[in-house]
Please model this.
Amino acid sequence: SPADAADALRFRRELGIEPGITVFTVFGYLRETKRIPSCIAAFRELHALRPKTALLLAGTLWLFLSPD
Model:
């Protein structure tokens, strides 16, 4: 079942994410097809324009991840 508002607020608090911050996420196996370096670069540009944003990467590093 979807998390209720109290669960979401508690989770944000545990991660140090203030209310009102827009969170962008990448979940699952963190492999080359997820283009993590590109996601981070794009997020940096966005964050410079919209500071009330956060990026959450959550998952398992895939064994075949490139050095990038």
Q: What stands out?
A: The mean pLDDT is 85. Residues 2 and 8 are 10 Å apart (CA to CA). The chain is about 35% helix and 20% strand. The longest helix spans residues 36-49.
